[in-house]
Design a protein that fits this description.
CATH superfamily of the largest domain: NAD(P)-binding Rossmann-like Domain
CATH architecture of the largest domain: 3-Layer(aba) Sandwich
Largest sheet: 10 strands, mixed
Strand order of the largest sheet: 14-13-12-11-7-10-9-8-15-16
Order of helices and strands: HHEHEHEHEHEHEHEHHHEEEEEEEHHEEH
Number of helices: 14
Distance between the termini: 27 Å
CATH class of the largest domain: Alpha Beta
Number of strands: 16
Number of domains: 2
Structural class: alpha/beta
Length: about 450
Amino acid sequence: MTQTRRNFCKTSAAVIAGAGLVSSVPGLAGCSSPVKKVRYGVIGVNGMGLTNIMRFMEQPDTELVSMCDVDQNILNRRANDAKEYFKKVHEKSGDASVQEPDIKLYTDYRELIKNDNLDAVIIATPDHWHCLPFLEACEAGIDIYVEKPLANTIGECMVMDAYAKKHSRVVQVGQWQRSGQHWIDAMDYVHSGQLGNIRTVKTWAYLSWLKPTPRPDGTPPNGVDYDFWLGPAPLKPFNPNRFHFHFRWFWDYGGGLMTDWGAHLIDFALYGMKAHMPKSIMSLGGNYSIDKAAMETPDTQMVLYEFDNFVLQWEHAIGIDLGPYNRGHGVAFIGDRGTLVVDRGGWEVIPEKPGQEGSLQAVPRKSGDGNDAANHVRDFLDCIRSRKTPRGSIEIGKNIAIISHMGNIAHRTGDKLYWDDAKKVFANNEKATELIWPQYRTPWKLPRI
């Protein structure tokens, strides 16, 4: 094997893993030196792919090397967008003389992983395409920033977690609220005990997102490798409503708002309650909106998760903006002394009995600074160098994705489910357990653990 810088870093780090000597070992210092730029590639450049490129470009110690997408039209457009944003970043910094990046373009992620001697890769594909590039990046010794939810099934999440740990990869899941200071401050307040006994936690997302109207099947646009876009998903005719942004409303490729926003918000319910896995799960919902949309996932859904000493509620509605506590999204910790409500804009505490002697003091709304996503990227880059665990670790990303998928499985089966965490199955429910693992289309194969 050719001894590339990445291979050297990977093998050397394995030798001294756990010794805390990265910066003091001759040669390996070149892998972790603050002067060395982190070379990264991007798989999936539409939507969050471009957003992540911009956040990474804003960090001075990064170098965009390559981009990959099965849609050649999007790939070419985003390459130009990336170069334009690069110019803006360096003009703003007063260093407009820096040469724009020479970005290699691929339509097959395997070529990107194999050819570019990368330190890191961003995976921002549709959910059903998170797993296989992730596994190959782990085997190649590349660190990974992967969009949430971690994967499209519980089984894929477990395999990805096992690979990341086996290959000692630094993984940051794109749950960037984990790096938001006002979210951290809110969790510190919850953990202080001032809210009293918390028996109920509410999480919700009410979003008037564009809903796809029914459209007939058709022909994929020129420049799109549709068979590759489907990948391990079942072979079905092309429909624009199942493509690009709207993929998330179809079970083959995503899990609707339950996984899309649940991965953000339920994560903080677990964080605040220091909880792991629920004992039981129930779900009700469907597509109830009068103006019917072309989607399989429910436009209206409620899920109840039972833990040992509290109940967690998730609810969402597509096409409505106003949710509980007059917020479109959020997390509410309801204690017998007061309720803390937090969303992307900030957090506040509402006393249970305001004005009474001994009552909990209200905490007026404390706003966030809007730097959550940038902080999350910075944390990932710092952890690549230090080999420490990022804030949105593989363990955190795995757990919340699994719990979000549990809500969808309860909805799809119509049953109250009981989770056996030791066996990683639903107790006495074969139909639900079958939905843990995807059925990959030939020739794609998912390794088992």
